[in-house]
Design a protein that fits this description.
about 525 residues, Rossmann fold, seven-stranded parallel sheet, six-stranded parallel sheet, about 10% strand, binds 2-acetamido-2-deoxy-beta-D-glucopyranose, transferase
């Protein structure tokens, strides 16, 4: 018996890595969903026994109370996230062109500069006692967080908040082929039409041009002003910015293949989408539980996420939505920051909702969401069909992908939302079993996986440390310039040879022609 215990203990030891590492996690974007992703990453790595230093704009002392956690406050970044960026009226009127990847990149550089220049970060970088085994940096369309490698001289892992896209892939491999892979912000679903294919190529070429020729200017300036002096003072080498940029060991993606984007990826891209979901569903508060349990005709849960503010929603839209929901036989739970007057009997406004617990409830029939990746992942996890009303960023891509797979319907965000939503509800509700069956298939494929997302997260982070930066995973494509990958050199050779042959033929022909200008001159 004692022997058996010993063997079991031995097996346990084999499975748990038990080595504690020092990990730096950089999540500087002051947007709730990014905070959720950062917080949960920190939680899993702490639970695995590691020591974590967390750069975050969200400061909530109680939540982060853990002996092995150090917080570095970059809440000043909120200044750069002005609320016009998520103003629903400005979005509906097209005053904000979120389809412009260049705007996103410029915002990202501004955010990076604000982060690196933050007095808390400067103090941290200058502290000679800080040492790390690995850095995890959120890739938010800026390569700037790669400079932390130069200070701590350890491996870097990028974390990508969205599905695989060319901008993150080019950091570790090669851009994704635009003929079947949409820019995250355009959100086309392959196979593309001719026009879509040409547009995707144009957007990616423009993006690559900016990445290579326009962005490095301001980025290198920030590096040389805010980081290089620290390196020099510490007697550390000052690597080229270019070298740092392309030196990441791995990309962890908040994605899963079942989200409708099965593209070939290099070995150092790993999907961990869903790690933010609690394995143990928290019980619903008593009032919500009663509401859900008693909803004989099912519940529709409506939430536009954390960025769109209710105060920006025009009065006519609120009234239109209430009227529409009032006509339904289902119970409607609407997450809205403030209470509304004259709500119909079946409509319940909640300021805050435990979304995962609601989606887990058997009476939850349909989810109406903005199509943010966290919400979509939760819908897949719990197998609930949804109507997506994309607002910005990758939400269009998520909506289009799941609509194409038959598990969701997309509705455009306009002043006519209540009318368009009515059309969508009339389409989905009569066929709800079909949509539910489809999302349950996707859900089954999601859960049928060798490793849970949080275990994959811990494994790959530890793997990078254990293998000193995982050089064996790096794609050789990084060493092959784009023109060689596209065989542009071969094209040039073929063109040159063709021109030479044509010239020679012309020359030979001219020798045989008495009318030849050369002969005439002679
Ligand atoms: C904190 O880290 C140390 C090792 O660095 C470990 O022994 C200890 O168990 C950790 N504490 C907690 C609460 O995880
Ligand atoms: C938001 O937009 C309005 C109207 O375009 C402008 O007047 C205001 O200054 C903007 N606010 C910020 C913080 O940029
Ligand atoms: C490049 O990555 C390796 C392995 O991850 C790391 O040890 C090294 O410090 C990095 N190089 C620079 C210049 O940061």
């Amino acid at each position: 018996m004692a022997d058996l215990k010993l063997v079991l203990f031995g097996i346990l030891l084999l499975f748990c890595s038990c080595e504690a590492y020092k990990i730096l996690i950089i999540f500087p974007v002051p947007s709730t969903s990014h905070g959720i992703l950062g917080d949960n990453m920190v939680k899993h790595l702490l639970n695995a026994g590691h020591e974590v230093t967390y750069i975050t704009p969200f400061i909530n002392k109680k939540k982060y109370d853990h002996p092995n956690l150090t917080i570095i406050d970059v809440s000043a970044n909120e200044e750069h996230f002005d609320e016009n960026l998520t103003n629903i009226q400005m979005i509906m009127e097209g005053k904000l062109d979120f389809k412009d990847p260049i705007l996103m990149t410029q915002l990202a550089i501004m955010m990076a500069s604000s982060t690196l220049g933050n007095p808390n970060i400067q103090k941290f970088l200058k502290d000679p006692n800080q040492q790390f085994d690995v850095i995890i940096g959120e890739y938010m369309f800026s390569d700037m967080y790669s400079v932390f490698q130069a200070v701590f001289q350890c491996p870097l892992i990028w974390f990508s908040t969205i599905q695989p896209h060319w901008a993150i892939l080019k950091m570790v491999h090669a851009p994704l082929n635009p003929s079947y892979n949409s820019d995250y912000i355009i959100g086309n679903v392959a196979p593309f039409t001719f026009n879509e294919r040409v547009y995707e190529l144009w957007v990616q070429l423009k993006g690559l041009y900016y990445h290579k020729y326009i962005n490095p200017g301001p980025e290198e300036k920030i590096y040389s002003e805010l980081v290089a002096p620290i390196l020099k003072a510490q007697g550390k080498p000052v690597p080229n910015y270019e070298e740092l940029k392309y030196n990441a060991s791995l990309v962890l993606g908040n994605s899963q293949v079942v989200f409708g984007n099965p593209v070939p990826l290099p070995p150092n891209y790993q999907h961990i989408g869903g790690y933010h979901i609690d394995e143990d569903v928290k019980p619903l508060p008593e009032d919500l539980k009663k509401l859900m349990d008693n909803a004989k005709n099912g519940v529709i849960y409506f939430s536009l996420g954390s960025n769109v503010k209710s105060k920006d929603l025009p009065e006519s839209m609120k009234e239109g939505l209430l009227e529409l929901f009032g006509k339904l036989k289902q119970t409607v739970i609407w997450k809205f920051e403030k209470n509304l007057d004259n709500t119909p009997k079946n409509v319940h406004i909640v300021q805050w909702a435990p979304q995962q617990s609601l989606l887990a409830h058997p009476n939850l029939a349909l989810f109406i969401s903005h199509g943010g990746l966290l919400s979509v992942t939760e819908a897949v996890y719990f197998g609930k069909p949804f109507i997506a009303i994309p607002v910005f960023a990758d939400q269009f891509l998520n909506a289009n992908s799941f609509q194409k797979m038959g598990a969701a319907v997309k509705v455009d965000l306009t002043y006519n939302l209540h009318k368009d939503l009515e059309v969508a509800l009339n389409k989905v509700l009569p066929e709800l079993p079909k949509y539910t069956a489809r999302i349950k298939e996707i859900s089954a494929a999601y859960h049928d996986s060798p490793m849970k997302p949080k275990d994959a997260l811990n494994f790959w982070v530890e793997h990078v440390v254990r293998t000193r930066g995982a050089p064996h995973l790096r794609s050789v494509a990084l060493l092959v310039p784009l023109y060689q990958q596209a065989y542009l050199d071969l094209l040039a050779v073929i063109l040159a040879v063709t021109v030479v042959i044509l010239l020679v033929i012309r020359r030979i022909l001219s020798l045989f022609t008495s009318e030849s200008p050369k002969l005439k001159r002679n």
